Amino acid sequence: MNMPLSTFEKICAVATSHFATYGYDASSLNTIAEAVGIRKASLYSHFQSKNDLFSTVFSAAYEQERVFMQQCFQVEQQSYLGNGYCASLPSRFEQSPSLALFLKASFVGPAFLQVEIKAAYANYLTEVGEYFVLQLKAAAPSLTVDEIATFQEAYLGIIDSLHIELIYSTLSAYEKKRTAMLEVLSKAIQASTVS
């Protein structure tokens, strides 16, 4: 049985979607309050300011997307290493305002939270890289430490590029880039294991 959302949870859900769609600057507390079905003044019983609300929903989005990313790597069974996460991103981006908010804020976030946002995105990429390395070591145990580090950096470059593609491009462009880059990386890994 689903429990009804509290007012706080409704505000956060609406705000996440609103900020993901319009960005911080173009978002309106009045519009968020109306969508929740409360007065703007009622928002202030839950959040001190627009900054406070954005900070709260960004932190929640970051945590949700970390869990999603971890799950992608844990069920990875794809032809290319790290592909499960990459292949799942477009549908997640379309269906989850938390991913859209997290990525858009990471590239074009509000100035007041830039330090925290950059740290969150860096931590996220670090964790992605760690999961990739676990897969890489299992799939290619003969690689040297330096080779592993190089492939990890290459994979993170792919991830960063694909995140940008999600925000600014089309699904077909994303898929073309994902397929090409992961194929090249896979061939490089295979070549390193036979030499």
Describe this structure in words.
- The protein has helices at residues 7-26, 29-36, 40-43, 50-74, 83-95, 97-108, 114-139, 145-168, 171-194.
- It is mainly alpha-helical and 195 residues long.
- It has a domain at 61-194: Tetracycline Repressor, domain 2 (Orthogonal Bundle), CATH 1.10.357.
- Helix 8 (145-168) runs antiparallel to helix 9 (171-194).
- It is elongated, with a radius of gyration of 19 Å.
- The model has no long low-confidence stretch (mean pLDDT 93).
- This is HTH tetR-type domain-containing protein.
- It holds the Pfam family TetR_N.
- One of its GO terms (molecular function) is transcription cis-regulatory region binding.
Fill in the keyword field for this structure.
DNA-binding, mainly alpha, DNA-binding transcription factor activity, 195 residues, elongated, HTH_TetR, 0% strand, Tetracycline Repressor, domain 2
Note the topology.
Blueprint: H1 7-26, H2 29-36, H3 40-43, H4 50-74, H5 83-95, H6 97-108, H7 114-139, H8 145-168, H9 171-194
Protein name: HTH tetR-type domain-containing protein
Pfam families: TetR_N (PF00440)
Keywords: DNA-binding, Transcription, Transcription regulation
N→C terminal distance: 57 Å
Kindly provide the radius of gyration, computed on alpha-carbon positions and rounded to a whole number of angstroms: 19 Å
The residue-averaged pLDDT reads 93
CATH fold-level assignment of the domain at 61-194: Tetracycline Repressor, domain 2
Total helical elements: 9
Helix content: over 70%
Number of strands: 0
Q: What shape does the CA trace take?
A: elongated
Architecture (CATH level 2) name of the domain at 61-194: Orthogonal Bundle
CATH class of the domain at 61-194: Mainly Alpha
Structural class from helices and strands? mainly alpha
Query: Major sheet, described briefly?
Result: none
Strand % is under 5%
Residue runs with pLDDT of under 50 for 5 or more positions? none
SSE order, as H and E?
Answer: HHHHHHHHH
Pfam families: TetR_N (PF00440)
GO molecular function: DNA-binding transcription factor activity; transcription cis-regulatory region binding
Domain HTH tetR-type: 5-65
Organism: Acinetobacter rudis CIP 110305
